[in-house]
Amino acid sequence: MNRNELNPDASPQAAYGARLRSLREARGWTQDDLAERAEYSSVHVSAVENARKPPTLRFSRSLDRVFGLEGTADSFEREYREIKHGSLLEGFPEYVGYEGRAVEIRQFEIGIIPGLLQTPEYARVLAESGVRRGAITPEQADERVSLVAERQAALIRPRPPMVFVTMDESCIRRPVGGRSVMDAQLARLVEWAELPNTLLQVAPYEIGERRTLNLPVNLLTLPDRSVIAYAESQAQGHLDRENTSVMPMLTAYHQLQAEALSQATSVAMIEQLRKGTP
Fold it and tell me: What phi, psi does 166 have (nearest 5°)?
């Protein structure tokens, strides 16, 4: 039987395949053995191991189940996300993996509509703007738009998470993509606020210095009730699991919610914008 030599330094996909082979062989399994356990064909396993086929999210999660790596720092899901979303800020691909399993999601955003609430058209305009500025490639723009859809799809579960979104007023007043794109995006916000597992609030300009957060923040409550935070600046992203720094952010978020408009008043403001009234 011919055995191809793998070079894990050739590409991220090659490193994924080499690691897969190493773990498989450490257990004494053939490709057929792994294929049966992962519920894939041996041809598929071989193609991924030899970097002839890129890994998918579903395949990576199957491997994590088989090898007992679910939810760990060494999971294949995490490696897959780093391969697919390498243009994103550090920590964000890992955050997305946790987001797909969270029981509560809290977000604060400034300037743009949060990704979980974006329409495809709005997401596309933002991504293409990055291409025009030379900040990302067209391929990376496609990845970002796909990631928005992937994150939203992960929320559709038998027991969906509670999602709390507080947006600075700038998010709804900043025009993106022209009138039709923005009107559809505002309509999406109104629809989203009607869901039973969501809470949408606008933090109005008038709260001034009482706005407790000055950067976008994402807070996740996981099934074991632990809380992790992800925050980013223009150039850096950081995933934080330390209670000493996460808990103050959670407190600041709750304080911001107390200052923000109620959901009913927030929706009324959005509807006024759709009608063209200040």
Answer: -115, 125
- In the chain the first and final C-alpha atoms are separated, in Å, by 73
pTM of the model: 0.68
Distances (CA, A) of 50 to 39, 69, 116: 19, 21, 35
Q: Are 98 and 106 in contact (CB under 8 A)?
A: no
User: What's the CA gap between 25 and 275, in Å, rounded?
Assistant: 63
Please give the DSSP secondary-structure letter assigned to residue 106: E
Residue type, 111: G
- pLDDT tens-digit series, residues 134-181: 877 887 788 888 888 988 988 888 899 999 999 999 999 999 999 999
pLDDT digits (tens, 9 = 90+) for 50-83: 988 888 888 999 999 999 998 787 888 878 877 7
- Which domains, from first to last, does the chain contain? 12-83 (1.10.260.40), 92-119+152-274 (3.30.870.10)
